[in-house]
Amino acid sequence: MSGRTLNNSSVYSPSRAVRHTRAGLTVRVDDRAGYSVVRLSGELDLLTRPLLGEACAPLLARGIARIVIDVAELAFCDCSGLNALIDQQRAVRRHGGALLLTGVHGTLARLLSITGTADTFPEGP
Q1: Tens digit of each residue's pLDDT (9 = 90 or more) over 41-71
Q2: Per the database record, which ranges form the STAS domain (predicted)?
Q3: What pTM does this model have?
Q4: Residue 76's beta-bridge partner residues?
């Protein structure tokens, strides 16, 4: 698995990945050929939602407009977390890309279902 450095260089290092952690949420970004995987572990809520933007913004700035968000290890997601995902989906679309979800389950699956936003997020690999 290859990781990326936090700066805006295009140098990739297989030994490093970007990891952000705040009050119950860990976000790990791994670059792949043509896209990046953003793995969420913990709780995505009002307190932690800025981490998602902090992880995705540098990808878009570098021209990576295909992002897969892996939520398999997400233990909890509230409406603020769902709004953070929707905000990132819009940002990616403005850059002509696609944001995909993988590993959807639990509270996020329920939120997507009851809000009618499940079709907004295609499932990724």
Answers
A1: 999 999 999 999 999 999 999 999 999 999 9
A2: 25-125
A3: 0.82
A4: 43
